[in-house]
Design goal:
This protein is α/β, with parallel strands linked by helices and about 400 residues long. It folds into two domains: about 250 residues, Type I PLP-dependent aspartate aminotransferase-like (Major domain) (Aspartate Aminotransferase, domain 2, 3-Layer(aba) Sandwich); about 130 residues, Aspartate Aminotransferase, domain 1 (Alpha-Beta Complex). About 40% of the residues lie in helices and about 15% in strands. A seven-stranded mixed beta sheet has the order 1-7-6-5-4-2-3, sandwiched between helices. It has a five-stranded mixed beta sheet with strand order 8-9-12-11-10. Strand 5, helix 8 and strand 6 form a beta-alpha-beta unit. The radius of gyration is 22 Å and the shape is globular. Pyridoxal-5'-phosphate binds next to helix 4.
Length: about 400
């Protein structure tokens, strides 16, 4: 933890290079220039900055910090989490590759697979519910290139055995990718459990203030890191902007303080909901009643502020409850300072609810993000809204 706090606050920063300014400048330049043609021709060897689509000094500070936090050798920043995900697929897969995807990953990831990579790149995808490692192994084919994973996963915050999964993938020469945005680099370190590529969307806890879009990949294998940075990012052009990088660096300075508070509030909110007579079930990895509590305690060291719950009432009541909330705003993101509520599956198709094995009840799922407005305000808000339904 001591090293992590030093990384959050200081790593990757070289004040001497920028007039001893205590915070780094936003390098708002597209170009770096050279004294002599020989130096320009030599840049490949000396690793100097050349052009902004390739690398940027402010972006690089962020990359150094995230690489260190994830115990990786390199991190590569992109313009969004989805750009980072696409880059990982492009780096690892080829036309015709087979992907194994966790069933409950972030929705747009499944849409990109189902509506682009399958029909237009000739790929195929098998979905896995995350429970049985033997089943996972049975899904592997000769052309399986990548496993797309997320833990805790979207909607009901189930987890899967990260280390066991990584071992199976390695034994079959399959690369693994995990979305670690929920836990932040502080509460879960998938690279240390054998995962190849870790992704964070920076619009969530890393940015922390709901003011940036960005994504970042961390890896241990430098060859893979170089492919992501020097090939995929350069060719497809998805680098993070320097202003966003600067805001992410600022976000990281307080990440530890913020997630600790998000978690403290969420713990109290989860306990309140679990004991409320109108609530049927609470899905939060911090609850002792989580069916996978042992596995969670083995691979996570914290839980942050995101959870979902189900009312005892009919699914329509969920939307009424969300509409009654006053401190919790309605919005689809999380990880910022603000509390948010949403019924993510209220408009889902029957097919989707069946796929997620939630059935019609899934429409009534309420997801909340506990922000930084203080526990008391959130409990009062939930109390008054629950009283009205
Ligand atoms: C928001 C989110 C993303 C997408 O990130 P963008 O930066 O918006 O592209 C990916 N994964 C999870 C779990 C998210 O919540």
């Amino acid at each position: 933890m001591k090293d992590e706090l030093l990384t959050l606050t200081h790593a990757g920063e070289h004040q001497k290079d920028y007039l001893n300014a205590v915070t780094p400048p936003v390098f708002l330049n597209s170009l770096h220039i050279f004294d002599r043609m020989e130096d320009y021709l030599n840049q490949g060897k000396t690793g100097e900055y050349v052009y902004g689509r390739v690398s940027n000094p402010t972006v690089h500070i962020l990359e150094e910090k995230v690489a260190a936090l994830e115990k990786g050798s390199m991190a590569v920043a992109f313009a969004s989490g989805m750009a980072a995900f696409s880059a990982a697929v492009l780096a690892v897969c080829e036309a015709g590759s087979h992907i194994i995807c966790l069933r409950d990953v972030y929705g747009p990831v499944k849409r990109a697979l189902n509506e682009y990579f399958i029909p237009q790149m000739g790929m195929s995808v098998s979905y896995w519910d995350g429970r049985d490692l033997d089943e996972l192994e049975s899904l592997i084919r000769d052309n399986t290139a990548l496993m797309v994973l997320e833990s805790p996963a979207t909607f009901v915050f189930s987890v899967f055995d990260i280390e066991g999964t990584a071992q199976i993938a390695k034994a079959h020469g399959v690369k693994t990718y995990i979305d670690n945005s929920f836990c932040t680099p502080l509460y879960q370190k998938p690279l240390t459990l054998g995962i190849d590529i870790v992704m964070h969307t920076m619009s969530k806890y890393i940015g922390g203030h709901s003011d940036i879009i960005g994504g970042i990949l961390a890896v241990r294998d430098e060859k893979l890191g170089k492919t992501l940075m020097d090939n995929i990012r350069q060719w497809f052009g998805g680098i993070l902007g320097p202003m966003e990088a600067w805001l992410a660096i600022r976000g990281l300075r307080t990440l530890d303080l913020r997630v600790e508070r998000h978690q403290k509030t969420a713990m109290e909110v989860a306990a309140f909901l679990e004991n409320h007579p109108k609530v049927e079930k609470v899905y939060y990895t911090g609850l002792a009643s989580h069916p996978q509590a042992d596995l969670i305690n083995k691979q996570q060291t914290g839980h942050t502020g995101l959870m979902s719950f189900q009312l005892k009432a009919e699914p329509e009541a969920a939307m009424r409850l969300v509409n009654e909330l006053k401190v919790f705003e309605i919005g689809c993101s999380w990880g910022g300072f603000e509390s948010l509520a949403i019924t993510p599956l209220a408009g889902a198709s029957e097919e989707e609810l069946k796929f997620l094995q939630l059935g019609e009840k899934g429409r009534g799922l309420i997801r909340i993000h506990c922000g930084l407005e203080g526990t008391e305000a959130l409990l009062e808000d939930l109390e008054q809204a629950l009283a009205k339904i």
